[in-house]
Amino acid sequence: MRLWLVVVCGVLVGCAGTQERRGQAEGYRLDSASAGCRQSPTACAAATGKEAVTPGMKAAKVVATAAAVAAEVLRLFEEQRGPLEKALEECADLARSKVLLEQFSGRVPTAEQCRAEVERDAKGRPVTLAMKLGTEMHKVALECAQPKLAKLRPGGFSLEPRYLYDPTTGKWSLTSREKEQSLLTDGPLSELKSSLVPDIVIHTGDPRRALTAYDFKFPCADITRIVPWTDYPPGPPHFGRTQEKAYLKELELTASPVRIQPRLGVIR
């Protein structure tokens, strides 16, 4: 991922009015940028992109290298990773307990029950109990995660963003909620199958500049079984990759994606 940070006077570092103060500003510019990013990832996103010069401040133009900025953004995320992942583990545990309590009086369904078809979706495809429970657990987990992430990383995450592939350009782009809803109701299955929808994307403040992704995984019967990454079928645009490999490559993640599973926690 290519990231450029422009440190603008009055936003991430203080203005230096003398040569001595300019020298001081030079020394703490990355620390100041770090503080700004920690408080609001959107500040990092706003400062990412082309070079900028504040009008009237010819000498106040500080541009960090792409490698230095990428390392700094990742370092700040690593500081947050522990509390963030603990929050997601709590949400996964809550989701399983809540849904099983409502659907099975807290009991764990059998393998046979999990495989049984319980309904059909809007496109007429069969839905098993395992699929139905998984969908409901995902909903509860994401509802739980939203306020926790908003507190831990305001402006620096997205829930279930959908990335679509354009075969004419070979590029991936973030789709709007309106376009997503249109695809879900009337769109071709091929376009939906080729899209990427991580449960949670951690980013710089811009979902197109992703750092890592998290997926909740909910086994139906055997809580001790580690749920693998989903395999995509052979063919473009994923060419038989797993979710993990597709997220990592197509979203240009800085850190490898992670699974969160109830009772087992973080699985890398």
Can you give a write-up of this model?
Residues 1-30, 49-54 and 56-64 have low confidence and may be disordered. Helices cover 44% and strands 15% of the residues. It folds into 2 domains: 6-64, no CATH class; 81-267, no CATH class. With 268 residues, the protein is an alpha+beta fold.
Helix content: 40-55%
Average pLDDT for all residues? 79
How far is the N terminus from the C terminus?
A: 21 Å
Q: Give the radius of gyration.
A: 22 Å
Q: Describe the sheet with the most strands.
A: 5 strands, mixed
**Count of separate DSSP helical elements:** 8
Total count of domains: 2
Order of helices and strands: EHHEHHEEHEEEHHEEHEE
Main attributes of the structure:
two-stranded antiparallel ribbon; 5-stranded mixed beta sheet; alpha+beta; disordered N terminus; 268 residues; 8 helices; 2 domains
